[in-house]
Amino acid sequence: MLLLTVLAMGASLVSPPAFPFPPAPADCVEAQRVCSVDPQCEALYRGLELCAADAAVATLGEQVASECLERQDTLLSKHPALLVCKCQRGFRKEEQCLRVYWTVRLLPSEDELEVSPYDDTQMDSRMASLVAASSYMQLDGENQCLKAAQDCGLYEKCGSLRSEYVLACTKRMPGTSRCNQHKCHRALRRFLERVPEEYSLGVLFCPCTNTLCGERRRKTIVPSCSYQEMDGLQPNCLHQQSFCRRDDLCRSRLADFLQNCQPSSMTASGCLKDSPGLCLRAYAGLIGTIMTPNYISNSSADVSLWCNCEGSGNQWQDCLRLHHMFTHNTCLRNSISWMGDPGSLPADFTPPPAPRPSPLVQEDEVLSNNHLPEHSNNVSAASPFRFISCTLWPCGCFSSSCPVTVYLLCWFYLLPLSPSSFVRSLVWYFQAQFLFVS
Fold first, then answer.
1. Rounded to an integer, what distance in angstroms lies between the CA atom of residue 101 and that of residue 209?
2. pLDDT in tens, 273-284
3. pLDDT per residue as tens digits for the range 223-263
4. Domain 124-342 has CATH 3.40.50.300
5. For residues 296 and 273, is the Cβ–Cβ distance under 8 A?
6. Is the pLDDT reported for residue 355 higher than 60?
7. Model confidence at 359, in pLDDT bands (50, 70, 90)?
8. Of residues 112 and 355, which shows the higher confidence score?
9. What are the boundaries of the signal sequence (predicted)?
10. Dist. CA 394–CA 68, nearest whole Å
11. pLDDT, position 345
């Protein structure tokens, strides 16, 4: 009896403290579901949704804004779980979750627009395998972005989704010379959200020591469609930010970047949150939005948005602050460098998952051998790039420039596939040849 009493007392000492409110659901979709069970909460939330819809169209009048904010205060005071909930990037209900998150922040302040809606409590734990993968694929004296592209092509999901975004970003809309940027961005987001990070971020942040590698890295996201405007004119950065913040997804990805890539001189990484991994993920999260950043040249790892600060007027400093978050950001620069630095390997790193052979890699020839549309027309059939195409990627060699032995090797590679995979491989290959090969 004495022992049980002591154990009971010990248990009471370590038990969590009582709070006036129950633990809030981490996910905003779940928080809204709990709210919908209560008729009063549901009515308040639906009213706030109407306010948010009106605010998205035009600035709310003073009286309407006051009524909406009063409704917001009442809702959050009775159901605080809606205020503290977060979302998960890339999850099936991400956009629904973000809609809830921003609905209860009806007229967010500038500070609130720089707070990430994403839950990063478990994200940094996976960084060791990502760093291990990036360092694992380093080859001294070789094009490391080529190796990253090859590794991606050998992993079925990476190879197929990469082929999807290449096609989406290079296909012209009927009757025009323009690509469909919306479809291009959507395909890029699918690639980055569904492919394991040791492959997707390896392709984005592969370290380069020469311009050939740098050009491959710069053109990874097919910038002629995803990054630049077709007319070549750069918009004002604040205008671009304003359009971004009208969309829940873009607003969320930008807030995530501004929070997780905030520079600081007080940490070793140069990041306020002292996590290069979180900064890289936040940067990658912007790709596929109107705020898509990219490398500005093939001779450095410097990045920028496709915008400038001309015409900013008295908001010049605000514009420069946004622009410099990409061009003069020590946190972002150090994070990109850290990605390919073998000295940052953890002592107990584990190699990345073994890639699976994929029949969907033939279109990857376009990217893995510098056959991107922006400069493929300058590559002759007798060039070194076409030779690499024949030797490194057997199923990219159905052309008269390839040796007969390599041509036979292609068929040997394809024969073990099922009939449907065989046909699909041929169709996708010839589509890629038609689109990309001069």
1. 43
2. 988 989 999 999
3. 999 999 877 789 999 999 999 999 999 999 999 999 999 99
4. no
5. no
6. no
7. very low
8. 112
9. 1-20
10. 62
11. 39
Amino acid at 71: R
Q: Where are the domains of the chain?
A: 21-107, 124-342, 372-436
Length of the chain: 438
